[in-house]
Amino acid sequence: KQNYRIAVLPGDGIGPEVMAEAIKVLDAVQQKFGFTLDYQQYDVGGIAIDNHGEPLPPATLAGCEASDAILFGSVGGPKWEGLPPEKQPERGALLPLRGHFDLFCNLRPAKIHPGLESLAPLRADIAAAGFDVLCVRELTGGIYFGKPKGREGEGEDETGFDTMKYSRKEVRRIAHIAFQAARGRGGVVTSVDKANVLATSILWREVVEEVAKDYPDVTLNHLYIDNATMQMLRYPAQFDVLLCGNLFGDILSDEAAMITGSMGLLPSASLNADDFGLYEPAGGSAPDIAGQGIANPVAQILSAAMLLRFSLKQEAAANAIDTAVSKALSEGYLTGELLPAEKRDQAKSTSQMGDFIAQAV
Amino acid sequence: KQNYRIAVLPGDGIGPEVMAEAIKVLDAVQQKFGFTLDYQQYDVGGIAIDNHGEPLPPATLAGCEASDAILFGSVGGPKWEGLPPEKQPERGALLPLRGHFDLFCNLRPAKIHPGLESLAPLRADIAAAGFDVLCVRELTGGIYFGKPKGREGEGEDETGFDTMKYSRKEVRRIAHIAFQAARGRGGVVTSVDKANVLATSILWREVVEEVAKDYPDVTLNHLYIDNATMQMLRYPAQFDVLLCGNLFGDILSDEAAMITGSMGLLPSASLNADDFGLYEPAGGSAPDIAGQGIANPVAQILSAAMLLRFSLKQEAAANAIDTAVSKALSEGYLTGELLPAEKRDQAKSTSQMGDFIAQAV
Ligand SMILES: CC(C)[C@H](C(=O)O)[C@@H](O)C(=O)O
Ligand SMILES: CC(C)[C@H](C(=O)O)[C@@H](O)C(=O)O
């Protein structure tokens, strides 16, 4: 198949402006690599609340269903912060999309790019040792979706409750993905749980051990989540692939992203068993800088590359984008937030970054 | 009352050697401040498994019941790592003690001592801004103790499950402690939850908002746990008191401890409604350096000071210990792990640290 339909969901804040650059780059590769992309744009998040009364309108969901992959920008902003949780742009769009398409596999690479070590919030010697991890997070189970969830009782005895829950098969399918990914990387999986306290984690650890037998060439370590959070600061270079359930993956992948100090460079993929997926930058909608043309489009562009790789199987085109991005970064072609104060006058705009990368592919 | 009984549980690894120094310091203050301490020592953790077949033997529990407070060392080591979770030294001793005595309030101060900024794993400019937080963690509820917890189903459909649960009154009592603590500190409470996903967190947030009305002089902020983990790295100086449930507090208090880069200095208190408490260092049993006389006793000594302050109401004696410790640290009287490699020859031994602090009180 050489013609694909992409559901484009720019969202709020900087979403639309960085999305425009990702499309620019996709346009460049589709010519070069001989496939065509049909973009269909839909409202999501805050703008969807404004235009249609809900963060994930039926037309948006239908558009996603009719597509080969979803390219997602970012959602949310102060305007919608007072809404009840399930109506909020981020939660109200992302959780239903993950559930609806069974996007159980979240891949979040986080690395410190050579030359950008000084952006990391870590001590210079720790950052210099390097950091390059892939967080593999289970995304449709655990305490996010476990039932029962709710409230009961009266007055001061009223309780709120949630259920953390994993089945063997849920753990097994995400564990296989982590081990396979480790084979193509550093060959080490660190599984993160809280098996000294949680029954869910004891089962998690058992299944991960079973899966590990199929990958004798991959080293498996286990860490408790509290210890993992500390080891990420003490010696982050030790990690390769991090395998986590939904909640621990939420926490640890954000810690890993912050460790790089360059959130604007980090893409993500959320996949189902058929390699259908949603691709989005790791950072947020950054309403404070929206509309100024200074947002970094790289995370969105690398998310588009992941889309080509995982959902469209256009590996060569994906690699071309990754290489073009590395070229931009290594040549010091950077947006302002990646530059020290005294070099801010050399900052490239959002569209200059997109132009450079589109030309380099 | 001027005569107190203290249950002393040294435990494993460096536990006994740092405990000896804490006792030395307690002996010094009891003379000076005119009260007497009757120490009763009991096995706990690995040594209790070896001597009595279980990490928390009945005699130890009975000894704790007969005392005014528990001074706990640290437990665990490679010898007992293969045991099933509930039999392991740490979990098998701490969780039952917390549950039995209803130690719902965990206080974990974490700060970067002036002069020790370079130990922090953070970038120099971030560490230089300072870091001084108090983690207030709920310790007897949440997903640690919520029922049901266990396994069900067969084969690949077998699931493990845990229940996160908080009642209004559980949230209320820990929230009051956080707000009161903030009054005596920086006046800011940051409550950490995951209210965009968890029903428990929505109730948590509601109750914390209610409690905040009683403290108009204290500022309240809310952060999602994933964002809190990031903000702790980006700009840790912004935090004062962190208020968390059991699981998020486990993660965030360990992250805060690691941020200081000097875990050997950090004490903790776990209290019930009657101010009975268990006091222990934040770090572990460090079996790799046990018996060498090089472990830092400060965390154990500061834990003893918390014991005097919270359970025995001997504030003056507690302050004297805190002041003596600050004197040691500011005069560069330090154990080896706090010194740069080229100054290691000036390192003080475990007992030298204890002697200095005992003399200084
Ligand atoms: C918006 C929120 C529900 C979501 C999550 O917790 O999964 C976000 O933090 C993420 O990681 O994508
Ligand atoms: C040993 C373990 C059960 C415990 C916890 O998770 O509470 C420990 O990590 C702690 O923080 O005291």
TrEMBL record, chains A, B:
EC number: 1.1.1.85
Residues the entry annotates as binding Mg(2+): D226, D250, D254
Entry keyword NAD: yes
Site residues by UniProt (Important for catalysis): Y144, K194
First-level EC class: oxidoreductase
Keywords of this entry: Amino-acid biosynthesis, Branched-chain amino acid biosynthesis, Cytoplasm, Leucine biosynthesis, Magnesium, Manganese, Metal-binding, NAD, Oxidoreductase
One Gene Ontology molecular-function label: 3-isopropylmalate dehydrogenase activity
Needed cofactors: Mn(2+); Mg(2+)
Localization per Swiss-Prot or TrEMBL: Cytoplasm
Pathway: Amino-acid biosynthesis; L-leucine biosynthesis; L-leucine from 3-methyl-2-oxobutanoate: step 3/4
Reactions mediated catalytically: (2R,3S)-3-isopropylmalate + NAD(+) = 4-methyl-2-oxopentanoate + CO2 + NADH
Highest rank taxon of the organism: Bacteria
Domain Isopropylmalate dehydrogenase-like residue range list: 5-357
Binding locations of NAD(+): 77-90, 284-296
UniProt binding sites for substrate: R98, R108, R137, D226
Cofactor binding mode and count: Binds 1 Mg(2+) or Mn(2+) ion per subunit.
NCBIfam families in the record: leuB (TIGR00169)
Oligomer and partners: Homodimer.
Function in brief: Catalyzes the oxidation of 3-carboxy-2-hydroxy-4-methylpentanoate (3-isopropylmalate) to 3-carboxy-4-methyl-2-oxopentanoate. The product decarboxylates to 4-methyl-2 oxopentanoate.
Record HAMAP family: LeuB_type1
Family stated for the protein in its record: Belongs to the isocitrate and isopropylmalate dehydrogenases family. LeuB type 1 subfamily.
Name the record gives this protein: 3-isopropylmalate dehydrogenase
Record organism: Corallincola spongiicola
